[in-house]
Structure formats: structure tokens, C-alpha cells
Predict the structure.
Amino acid sequence: MSEKALVGSAIIGQSGGPSAVINASAYGVIKTALESKNITTVYGAYHGIVGVLNDQLMIMDEEDPKELEKLLYTPSSALGSCRYKIADPDEDDTDYKRILEVFRKHNVRYFFYNGGNDSMDTCNKISRYCAKVGYECRVIGVPKTIDNDLYGTDHCPGFASAAKYIATSIMEVSRDSQVYSTGMITIVECMGRHAGWLTAAAALAGLKGDGPDLIYLPERSFDMDQFIADVKRVYEEKGDCLVAVSEGIHYADGSFVSEAKTSGTDGFGHAQLGGLAARLASVIKAALNVKVRGIELSLLQRCASHCASATDIEESFQSGKRAVEAALSGITGKMVGFRCQRDENGYQCSYELFNLADVANTEKKVPLEWITPDGNHVTDDFIRYCLPLIQGETRQSKVDGLPDFVHLRRVFAK
Amino acid sequence: MSEKALVGSAIIGQSGGPSAVINASAYGVIKTALESKNITTVYGAYHGIVGVLNDQLMIMDEEDPKELEKLLYTPSSALGSCRYKIADPDEDDTDYKRILEVFRKHNVRYFFYNGGNDSMDTCNKISRYCAKVGYECRVIGVPKTIDNDLYGTDHCPGFASAAKYIATSIMEVSRDSQVYSTGMITIVECMGRHAGWLTAAAALAGLKGDGPDLIYLPERSFDMDQFIADVKRVYEEKGDCLVAVSEGIHYADGSFVSEAKTSGTDGFGHAQLGGLAARLASVIKAALNVKVRGIELSLLQRCASHCASATDIEESFQSGKRAVEAALSGITGKMVGFRCQRDENGYQCSYELFNLADVANTEKKVPLEWITPDGNHVTDDFIRYCLPLIQGETRQSKVDGLPDFVHLRRVFAK
């Protein structure tokens, strides 16, 4: 794209729960911004918008370019993240005045924010506020969320790497849990409070026969009696049973299974420690009296850069790069997203811009028609959707047999 | 080695908890046995010694050699495992008579057993029984245990891959848990009921600054008050704290922390579900009132073949190969093990034979002098010991972005 001249500095900030590839997006922004002659200085906000409010800006121009390249293969938010929810500017503009003050101080004319729904909301509000007060600043959102729940875009950077890790781990656990002639029931808990994309990714493990027997997503109400009956049936047929379950499953009344008081089945009847997997394991143990193991994939699924998808890394980098290119061409108030084709020619991903206002605070869930009628598995539609995204292996370099993560110098602007 | 002629068939069996590379050892046995002209048929016992007792023997000669090679990169026990404890032959020789019957039926003259302490005990008893009744059968143990607690050998096949996975995951979790400006305490639970080798491996993550602040092993008694004080001190100094803890930590009276009734700190005072990590997290939460997360690495650490150590794969394969070579040369009643040198010339591993009688039922623990005086970390001695073992990446092939595990035909002998 041609550049529509606006000379000034740029800020990139990261927000929300990190992923294995959020730094790849940041690198896309940083590298492209450093190469632009219209961008005078590239700042990394320390802990997202909080770093802007605190005027804690790290000068990316001061970093070794070779070290910066390791961002492609370093999990978590290298610039620091936050969970700060910014007010509506029409109700309280204190934060916005401060942001504008910092923007003016450093002549910030480009603002890139890398995160999920809330971050796109922040982006949108800052974009609107700048326009309202007549301060020219181009604001572009760079998507990130392992939850894959952003509206508009085909999928979200970060999802595919988590999906690849989940499918790989499920394959390994499936092998491990079938090793004894005495059967085993294994319940694996995946992240996803409202959307079941990550848990659905467990189904990819079934492509070579090592997948879960049962999958439960938050898109459908959970019924404990039906769950016990499902597990019992599979166990009696096969001699073992592997279950993938989303942390966000809930009863028909909307209450989370993970937070509900346990029923009488465990003999105590009070809230327990341990996650959903441990809770369901105790229910099954009480109901069927067989060997049961609960496994919570926990943080591991969102930071496993050693098992990242090369496709995800590349697309994440490109979203950062395209964000800067869009801003340089004069665009503001948009989020970079993907439009993808999956047909006989394979998988093709193109980059598009979505209105921040449309994206912010809208959750995209797994289509109900991609869940089997009995609510305990996903259809081939999901496999066709997800499989192209996990292709390719990371080229993360190793030192002493361990990942070589980035170490930033973190030189702060005065 | 030259062969001392004994013509007959061979059995390879796997036993105990699986690992990421136990199949690499099995492949070493199977490939070498298939190539020997003195070994007429190679059988895989279905579920270890139980498969022998049930006369369920899979003919390895019937498998596609190319498929068998995938054993190098497939986790868990592809032949099936068991936890069957065989009686002392002087007290009850029922099982031994049956084993001899099956051995005679298939003219089994070579028996290889792939497992941990108990398996070496089984090996030893079968070896002695065969000698006693005058049935010539050469019996060799092939070590396996992620716990790394076998006596004699420098280390055990399977340990290094689990160690590499643990160190890698700890590095990733360390990055993830430092992402917010609001601090976080993260407690990661590793396997190891009596020996702390796996938990100690978390220290490798510290080589590039992403290691745990505190490490607790079962070799030292655990003191909850000291633990809380340690965590508090680190958290106040750094603003966050990462802890690696062995599932087997116990109080001075020997009772496991994971099994103890919880103290009053959680307000209930009764046994809880969830593992040790969740339990310690609740104690810290109650004591310090900060954000705490407990993570249990669970089965993942013993089956993560996608993150296996190439050194471990090679050494595991070699132990199987050397076991067959030793048997063919006339040796019986031994276990293959490693003698290693670590000096200015690097790391060198040679293969030795150990007496099964010495190995069986003796546990090797982390030397107390490798634990820091205050009992909450390990010394550089451990790093020097462990680091060479995790070198090199697996060459596991992928299909559709996922591991390509072995699928055996499983043709059973009549």
C-alpha cells in the first residue's frame, strides 16, 4: 500500500491473556514500523494500556534486531500485559486525557493494540476519542486470543498453536491411558469459558485414531446424568474412555459445572478445590467405581511455543505487519483479520480489515451444527475448518536443548 | 560381541508406567532380535508378563519394518503394560510353572523385560527360576523409568525426555506467569513419589533466567510454615514466585503433604480433591491473599514424545540393542545400564551390565548434597548431571501437523 504521510512515533501494546504467538504479531508490528520512514520511534507499552497511562514506554529502536526476531518463537507477552478495562469516554474521560497527554508528549501518531475482545474495545474507544478531540492518530487492532472468539475474522492468531498443542497432547494421553489391560477413564479439561473452540480441537487427535471418545463444549447445556451415561456406555464398549471437556460447560440454568456445589455423589456436598477435570473425575469415580484420572491442561495450552503451528506464527506476524501497512496508508479504527478459503485447492488465507466497533465485545462461538446431535462430539465440519490452521512446525531455535526465548533490553523513554 | 549359539524365540515385554521412549527401547530389542539368525521368532508380550501368563504373544516378524521404526517416536507402551507383581518362587511357583509352560510351547530362549524396579525384580525371579529348573533361557532387563530411581545406572531411559519436557514447560509457564504487573504465584507439581529427579529438572529452566524460584523434593522433609515463609520472601522481593514441587513431598513424620488432612487455613479441615499443586495453592492463597495458580503436569510429562530428548531416544534404543547382544553372547540375569562421563571433553555414555539382583527393589534418590542447604533448590551439580541428557530434538515425523505414531498389526501367535 502507498503511504499517506503522517510522521510521528508508534506504540504497540499487548493486552489480555497471552498466547504462544502474540509476540509474533508484536514482531510484525515492530519490524514493519522500524522499517517505515514515517515512523520516527517505535515504543512498546509496558503492560499494555497501563504502560501508556504510566508513561512507561520501551524504545524498540534500542533493541538488537536479531534478538527481536526471537519474538516469533517466544510465548507470552514480551512487552507485558494487563487486564485494565478502560471506561466509556462519554462517562469518564480521565484515562483518555492522560493517554492523549502521553501521545502528545511522544508525538504518537500510530497506536497498535494486540489482544482479544476487550482490547479491541479499548482500541475502538481510543480511536473514537482521538477523532473527537481532533488529534490525528491511526489506531489499528491486532487480534489475539487462543479462545478464537473474535467476531468477523475466520479465526484468531494464537488459537491454532493452542489447538495443535491440545491435539498433540490428547494423542499422547490417549496412548498413555490405554496402556493397561485394566481400563481407565481420562478426563482432559481445556480452556474456553464461553466458546468451545479449544476443546473441539481435541477432535483433531482422532484423525489417526487417538482422539477423545466424548467432547463437551459450552455451546450446549451440560447434563450430568447424560454425561455419566455417555461415559458408562463407552467404557462398557471399549474398556476405556477419553473425554475432552471445556472449562466453561454449564447446566441448563447457566451455572458453571466447575463452580456448582457438588451433588451428593461425592459424599461431602460442598465446594471443592481443584478444577473441573478433578470434579468430573470424582463424579465418575463415585458413579462407576473405575479408575479415573482428571487432567487440566491449564496454562500449558496457551504458552506451549515449542509446539506452535508454523501457519499460526506466520499469520500472526502478517497481522502485525498488515496493521502497520494499513495505518501507514491512512486507515484507522480497524482490526486486521483473516478471510480463508478451504477447498480442493487447499487452504488460502487473505487479510482483511474489520470495523473495530463490530468486533469489540462480540463473541463468536462454535456453530451448533458443528456439534453432533447428542451433544458429545464435533462434526467433520470442525475438522475441515481447524486442520489447515495447525500445519507446520515452529522453527524455534534451541540452546542447550531448551528454547531460546527473547530477552529485551527494555530501555524506557524519558 | 560373538554369539554363543542358543537357537529359539525371544519375548519382549513392557511393564509399569510408560514413558516417551520406552518404545525406543523395545524397538532396540525387536530390531536387533529380528536381525539375529539364532532368534527364530520375536514375540511381543501383550501387557507384559500378564501377556506371557495368558499366552498372548504378538508376532513382531509379522509387522511392517517401516511401521516398527515409528516405535522410536511413539510414547507409551505399544505392546501394552501391566502392574502385575509376581510372587516369590519359593513361596508360590504357580506363575512360574505357567511361564515355563508358555516358554516351552514357543521355545522361548530369550526374555527381555522393559521397565522399572518391579520389572527388574520380575526379571530376576524368572531368571533364577529358569536356572533352578534347568531351562536354558537368557533373561536381560532393559531399564525404563521417568522417575530415574534405578540403582547402579547413571540414569534411566525415559527420565531425560520427561526432564526436557518439564524444563521446557517451566520456561513457558515462567514467561506466562510474569505477564501482568499484578504479581502471580505459580506452583507446578511434577511426578516423583519417592525421588525428586523430575522436579529437580525444573531447575534447567533457570539456565536462561526462566527457572523456578523454589524447588521442593521428597529427599528432604517438607515444612509448611517454612514453605509459606519462602514463598512470601520471594514474592515480596520479586513481585511473583514460581515453585516446582514433587508430588512426593512429605512432612517429617513421613506423611505425604498431598494426602494430609488440610490444616485450618482453608476453613474446612477435610481431605480435598485435586492434587498437591491445588492444595498448596489454597494454602498460599489463605496465607498471603495473592493470586495463586496450581498446575499439575500430570501424565503429560511422561508421554510428551513431541518434546523427547534425542539423546534419550538414542540411549533407549541402544539399551534394547545391547540387551539382545548381551543375551546372544551368552549372558543372563543382568540389566543394561549406563556409565557416563561429564568433563571438559563433554558427555560420554557407555553401556554396562548390572546384576539384576542388585538393581531390583533399590531406589536411587537425588543426593542430599545436590540440594541447597535451605532445602528449597538444587545445586549446579544437578545441572551438570542432567543437562547433557536432554540434548537434541526428536525427529518424530508429522502427518497433517500431528505426530505419526506406530500402529501395530498385532498378529497373535496360536
The two ends of chain A are 33 Å apart (CA to CA). Chain A touches chain B through 71 residues (CB under 8 Å). Chain A is about 35% helix and 20% strand.
